[in-house]
Design a protein that fits this description.
The chain is of the alpha/beta class and 191 residues long. Helix content is 44%, strand content 14%. The protein contains 9 helices and 5 strands; from the N terminus they run βααβααβααβαβαα. Strands 2-1-3-4-5 form a 5-stranded parallel β-sheet, with helices on both faces. Helix 7 links the parallel strand 4 and strand 5. The longest helix is centred in the last third of the chain and has 19 residues.
Length: 191
């Protein structure tokens, strides 16, 4: 190959909420930036675009698909939405419909997809909706035959030192703990 030819950059968009946006952290410490650093050793040049908006719901992610995802013309879309749907009491069927619509749009755009489950912290005993939310992600992954990454924030739940004082959002160190297994999952999709 011609050495002057620039390798095409593989673009990944992370469509998410505050966990993606990096709530309370500088952009360089947000999850997409950390994953991009971890994946720099991949064979192909790549970049991650942070399309996280703090407080966003699945409906918000769907509403901004065109300017957050399609405009970036990515190769892969990471969908990490739904936590705020749960926290605000949204009907799980609505969350499912919104995430389904995002996947439909991404498939129509021929994007590779990684669906990230955002599990409710409450147990089913505490909140009957928790069980309904828990089934959304595996069901969608099976229906659409897309890979599912589970347990995004679980590694840091029980470790207060990895959370900001609000007890909900990761510190920079918490982001690093979350990023490593997700980067590994993405690396497997890139091969």
């Amino acid at each position: 190959t011609d050495a002057t030819q620039v390798a095409e950059i593989y673009t990944i968009v992370m469509l998410g909420d505050s966990l993606t946006a990096g709530f309370g952290l500088p952009p360089s410490d947000a999850l997409p930036a950390e994953i991009e650093r971890l994946l720099q050793s991949e064979a192909r040049p790549l970049k991650l675009i942070n399309a996280g908006v703090s407080g966003d719901t699945s409906a918000g992610g769907l509403a901004r698909y065109d300017w957050s995802v399609a405009s970036a013309n990515p190769d892969l879309l990471v969908i990490a939405l739904g936590a705020n749907d749960y926290l605000t009491g949204l009907d799980p069927d609505q969350t499912r419909a919104n995430l389904s619509a995002i996947i439909d749009r991404a498939m129509a755009d021929n994007l590779d997809i990684l669906l990230v489950s955002v599990s409710a912290r409450s147990s089913s005993e505490d909140d009957p909706r928790a069980a309904d939310f828990a089934t959304i992600y595996p069901d969608l992954a099976q229906t659409y035959d897309v890979p599912l990454y589970e347990g995004l924030i679980e590694p840091i739940f029980a470790q207060p030192t990895l959370l900001l004082p609000d007890g909900l959002h990761p510190t920079a160190e918490g982001v690093r703990v979350m990023a490593a297994p997700l980067a590994q999952a993405l690396s497997e999709l890139l091969t």
